[in-house]
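Q: What structure does this chain adopt?
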Amino acid sequence: MKTLTELTPQQHQELRIADDCAIQFAQQQNIMNLRVTEVSQAACCMPIFYVRNSQNGQWVLTGFTSFEQGCNLFIDQGQWTALHTPANMQTFPFFLMKSPENPQQYTIGIDEAHSVFSTTSGQPIFETNGKASLHLSRVKTLLEADIKNDIRTQEFSHYINQLGLLRPINILIQQQNGNTPSLSGLYTIDEDKLQSLNKDTLFELHQKGYLAPIQSMLMSLFQLNALIKKHNKIQTLTPIKSIKLEVSKNSTAA
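A:
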């Protein structure tokens, strides 16, 4: 677990971040956290699923980027190739944290031990006068917006779960060599339950602005086919012949 330190010009004036810090962050993630405000954009390029946080059981909205752990199919020769760049990738390696001086307020924190930080190479975090760099100023704006987006995502997740719209699934993989690994712990929208909702509930979903991300999540499943094509272009990965989505019998939403 990372330990965050409040970012200040007094302590970190000489600190720099690697130019490819976003790529370093994403390259080993086969799922990437999303906010509900990103779903419609992300669905244009990647499948979107929910997973459960293993520590606190909370719902986590994610973009699915690979069938293999430690792999991200949207990184090619050190470049991010997806149409949408997740917000947490844009803000890395900066995080929101409770202010040490006032727990009611937020400040920016960093994991000083991370390899993307250096005092000798990369782009500076602060200008010589102690002001935030243009990059840090942009990140601050994104992080401030992320407070509201995080709350909205939690509200969305809670509401659709209360309606019973989350369905646990497994991805059954048929590899060309005959092996059949599977991926579990994923949740998607239960389309049958969505269709069975009464008019008042559907209207409320529409009023809250939830119907669009729900429909985008369903449409995003078609991106699995594009992901297979990306997977099969990488010679170091075992080619995939086909996949199948199966309703999980061992996991239920709660």
